[in-house]
């Protein structure tokens, strides 16, 4: 009976060690990926957070607002909630969602500007190489 108890205790110990090692490996991987891993987890969880936050509204048939400024107050309250969520994310993870979104927007704007410049200069780009038929000097016709 003692041998059986020792075997069970050893099995529990081995399982605990394996789980701890798995968590440690995951933490190491997340540390290597830094912000990308946290952002991935955040964006995977975000739909569930929004769903849970909006669930009470599913039971509302109609919202009637009276008086001046109520629509403005509603929008202000929504924006305040969004700000609280992004501030909480920044405090808990160190990731500023506003900065992340701004960097995506900035990158898109830069790519759009590059494309516009290409169009303005009438340069044909094929597979990241200038087409042999293009004149790279000023386009004077």
TrEMBL record:
Membrane spanning residue stretches: none
Q: Name one Pfam family in it.
A: Flot
- Segment forming the signal sequence: none
Q: Which InterPro entries match?
A: Flotillin_C (IPR031905), Flotillin_fam (IPR027705)
Using the record's annotation, list all stretches that form the Flotillin C-terminal domain. 6-115
- Protein name as catalogued: Flotillin C-terminal domain-containing protein
